[in-house]
Design a protein that fits this description.
The protein has 13 helices and 6 strands. It is mainly alpha-helical.
């Protein structure tokens, strides 16, 4: 556990990140709407134009909150810079993709490069801890796994950002679990970073929940996913985060497998779910339609968007509880 001073820094990071994100989100939305950067809310009968790229507010909140922590605790500059650099690079890639869509194969490669701050600063320990087995030294292999990890987490979160509140709602639970584990581990710096991510998600969820007033765009979802990957590496909770992200990982895996590889959404003509005339959503019966978590949740019959997102959040809560159990099992193996 952390001492009272370290806990105070965690609280300060949380509060500042929350306030900045909460205040910035509607302001960013106004700018995006003014310049016509909007998207259709496709899961509703009334096609409302919703401001896109509002994930910029998440980036701003994390940048200011993280920088504040770095100023207060300069002894942790290396880890903090590695986290912030990874998030900003992934967010920058998201900005490019929102303004001028990247190819389905290019985006994962570019997001993998977001890990460069972690590698350059050497902000990692190549000894992940596995349940039962304990710590395993992967000195030569681990650096090559880091780009893969960041690409998987960033794109996994991006693929979950499909409905009102689905991305911040699920990630806030994962971030809460990560914060709890890191607090128990006594990891002051990464606990503060995780708390900052949790704060940004809670603030953004207020505006992104049903009916959404803002969309994060790839700007936000890629950055948030990269943040989760960075937390796993910096805090040495790789296994815990993998378990917590099982719904995101499975959603991405089944989606890619069902369409035969990497494709942009606009390249896939069959949709996984169909909007009915009464406003409910049902699983698609089209041959070749992607298999996604939303489609699986709808397998038993039509539901409203809020109910589907609630199902996603519940599944993530279950996986996060399992992640806490995983931490308890691996606790004795931490070095």
């Amino acid at each position: 556990m952390l001492d009272i001073i370290s806990m105070a820094y965690v609280a300060i990071t949380f509060i500042i990140t929350f306030l900045v994100t909460f205040i910035a989100t509607p302001e960013v939305a106004k700018v995006m709407k003014h310049y016509g950067i909007t998207g259709d809310d496709v899961h509703k009968l009334s096609k409302v134009k919703v401001p896109e790229m509002c994930g910029l507010a998440i980036l701003l909140g994390l940048a200011i909150g993280t920088t504040t922590y770095m100023i207060l605790r300069p002894s942790y500059v290396r880890e903090t810079l590695a986290f912030l650099g990874t998030v900003l690079i992934a967010g920058g890639i998201g900005i490019i993709d929102d303004l001028r869509p990247l190819g389905a194969r290019v985006k994962p490669l570019l997001t993998a490069l977001s890990c460069l701050p972690i590698l350059v600063l050497g902000a990692y320990v190549p000894t992940p801890v596995f349940p039962i087995i304990g710590p395993v030294r992967l000195t030569l292999i681990y650096p090559f796994l880091i780009p893969i990890a960041i690409a998987v987490t960033s794109n996994g979160v991006n693929m979950m950002d499909i409905m009102n509140g689905s991305m911040p709602g699920t990630v806030s639970i994962i971030a809460a679990a990560a914060t709890g584990v890191l607090l128990l581990s006594g990891e002051a710096q990464t606990a503060s970073l995780a708390a900052g991510l949790l704060a940004a998600m809670l603030a953004f969820y207020y505006f992104n929940r049903y009916p959404a007033k803002v969309f994060s765009g790839d700007t936000g979802s890629l950055a948030v996913g990269a943040a989760l990957g960075a937390l796993a590496i910096l805090g040495r909770i790789e296994t815990v985060l993998v378990v917590a992200m099982i719904p995101h990982i499975m959603n991405a895996f089944y989606g890619l497998a069902s369409v035969g590889g990497l494709h942009e959404r606009r390249e896939i003509h069959q949709r996984p779910i169909t909007l009915l005339k009464n406003g409910l959503l049902k699983a698609s019966t089209e041959k070749g339609a992607p298999v996604t978590m939303a489609r699986l949740i709808l397998a038993e019959g039509p539901l409203g968007e809020k109910q589907i997102v609630r199902g996603m959040i519940i599944l993530t809560a279950v996986s996060s509880v399992l992640a806490l159990v995983t931490y308890w099992i691996t606790l004795g193996g931490r070095i």
